[in-house]
Amino acid sequence: MALLTGDVLFSVAVAVVIFLLVFDLMHRRQRWAARYPPGPVPVPGFGNLLQLDFEDMTHCFYKLRHRFGDVFSLQFAWTPVVVVNGLAAVREALVNRSEDTSDRPTVPSFALLGFGPKAQGILAARYGPIWREQRRFCVSTLRNFGLGKKSLEQWVTEEAACLCAAFANHDGQPFCPNILLKKATCNVIASLIYACRFEYDDPMVIRLAELLDDGLKEDMNLKLQIVNSIPLLLRIPWVAAKVLPAQKSIFALNNELLAEHNTGWAPDQPPRDLTDAFLTEMHKAQGNSESSFNDQNLRLVVYDLLTAGLMTSSITLSWALLLMILHPDVQRRVQEEIDEVIGQERRPEMADQARMPFTNAVIHEVQRFADIAPRTFPHMTSRDTEVQGFLIPKGTTLFINLSSVLKDETLWEKPLHFYPGHFLDNEGRFVKREAFMPFSAGPRTCLGEPLARMELFLFFTCLLQRFSFSVPEGQPRPSERGVMSFLVSPSPYQLCAVAH
Ligand code: HEM
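Above: inputs. Below: predicted complex with protoporphyrin IX containing FE.
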């Protein structure tokens, strides 16, 4: 009997192994197609998952690019992935082939956040009518609520004054600016989506800032890659319960804010904010089963704007202050320009930007050097396409390596150094650079770019107008190396802000 059980077990094991190998081969057969991009050899079942360092994908991609070229392939379990590097290939993929490359891969774990056929938010939405409807709605509503208008500018300037007051409270003593920067950028987004502002000591905004940090870290871990590559695992309740804990909490918090906000909505009154405008569209779409204006999608759209808008701007500002304490000569030149163009009596305005080429160059260089979204959000091919002569089949996940463009050795004089001269000509005039694409390009390019630019200029100039920043006495010089997660943040540091 024991022998029989042993025989049976052996046969079952062999059958399972053969089944898995055949299943694996079927999922990998496109690799043998002519002109499929080269890449490291995958291991059955896991593909290249175990060969990659998810904590530092930028470096991993850098090494693989040197080995395999600008367009190379990987395999995440059974998901085919192609990584696109360098300005020419990235532009070809995102701009020339935009109709083929603007889809997003399904992320199975997002179903735990309520992602479904008619509720996809914007960031992770499939390229199609649902995404188009929401993208158009967000762009036009943000514009109506002040993007490009004086009102939002005044709002950001007033928030910058609150931020300066909070910096001044530290009385020149060392502190880490990150949490204050998050609260300030949170208030800009909150004004647009909830028509409200949080005091800096409000427990809600403190909790939100902490959760957003945790959420960023959980986006890139290996466990999540494995469950997303083998979605069957999400059917196991204890696995599902352990996935995305921080993002589920942000969602719950966002639901609380929305519930509170929505009690004040009056359909006959002009919308106070983007959420009111969405509720109005929902009202109009009642009975239309095709519409993406529904309760669940409202949560996802607001969640996307909040998370995509808050962390990106605050992390960039944190980089900007870090680079100012590490490069006091650059800080001094920005302050001289502020003194010349704005002075100390009035607040900075967007109109000043055109007359401040050095400051503008510094902000661009901060974004290039910080390189905070090195791989964008994954794209996916919606049909067979070609990039740099390589054939990329429909349904392939695309990682657009923005880092390879922002730090390209052939395009930038000092790619690995902070050097504002990258954006200045010999006469000190600001020059645009084609390879400057921290917001990506093509149809999925960042929809918050104009808002982000406004925030970066106004917060940065307001802070530098009011304070001189330095490394606290006796502390070592902070590192210029970033901390990798889904976004790249500066390593934790402290500064002193001494009022002028
Ligand atoms: C310095 C600040 C920012 C940077 C560097 C940045 C960068 C990016 C990048 C790289 C993408 C992905 C593009 C792609 O997939 O190819 C993106 C998408 C997006 N960003 Fe931003 N972003 C910033 C600020 C903002 C702000 C303030 C908002 C909110 C108003 C925002 C909202 C979004 C949204 C909704 C998407 C998804 C667009 C889509 O899939 O159609 N971002 N951003």
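The chain has a mean pLDDT of 91.
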